[in-house]
């Protein structure tokens, strides 16, 4: 990717060019073992965890947050989706890495 135009607006854009602008990690997080097939379980995990974190931030911004309930809800989501991904591990496509975006 060419982010030359960012250098005019942000002096640190040159430092970010090879690291923060690279979203291959997100693609790898949301696809199966082959790196091409998007996985509904992984997308569900990402959306569920993101919504719990967003609700926690909203609650903390507008009042107090029950950290025990927040921790339990994150643990529940991570455990449930981890078990779902473990249960479907044999149905994943092959491990040959496809092209990354």
Content-based structural category:
mainly alpha
Number of strands: 0
Helix content: 55-70%
Shape designation: elongated
The H-and-E topology, N to C, reads as HHHHH
Strand content: under 5%
Sequence stretches where pLDDT stays below 50 over 5 or more residues:
1-7, 10-14
Gyration radius (Cα, Å) is: 18 Å
Q: What is the distance, rounded to the nearest whole angstrom, between the alpha carbons of the first and last residues?
A: 11 Å
Instruction: Count the DSSP helices.
Output: 5
Global mean pLDDT: 75
Q: Mind summarizing the main beta sheet?
A: none
List keywords for this structure.
mainly alpha; 101 residues; disordered N terminus; elongated; 58% helix; 0% strand
What does this protein structure show overall?
With 101 residues, this protein is an all-alpha fold. The protein has helices at residues 6-9, 13-16, 24-30, 40-62, 67-87. It has a domain at 31-91. The chain contains 5 helices and no strands. The radius of gyration is 18 Å and the shape is elongated.
Short description:
This protein has a domain at 31-91. The protein has 101 residues and is mainly alpha-helical. It contains 5 helices and no strands.
Give the SSE layout.
Blueprint: H1 6-9, H2 13-16, H3 24-30, H4 40-62, H5 67-87
Helix pairs in contact: 4-5
């Amino acid at each position: 990717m060419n982010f030359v135009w960012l250098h005019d607006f942000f002096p640190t854009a040159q430092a970010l060019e090879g690291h923060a602008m690279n979203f291959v990690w997100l693609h790898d997080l949301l696809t199966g073992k082959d790196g091409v097939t998007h996985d509904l379980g992984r997308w569900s995990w990402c959306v569920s965890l993101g919504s719990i974190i967003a609700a926690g931030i909203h609650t903390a911004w507008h009042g107090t947050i029950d950290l025990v309930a927040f921790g339990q809800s994150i643990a529940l989501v991570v455990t449930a989706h981890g078990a779902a991904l473990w249960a479907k591990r044999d149905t994943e496509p092959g491990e040959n890495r496809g092209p990354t975006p």
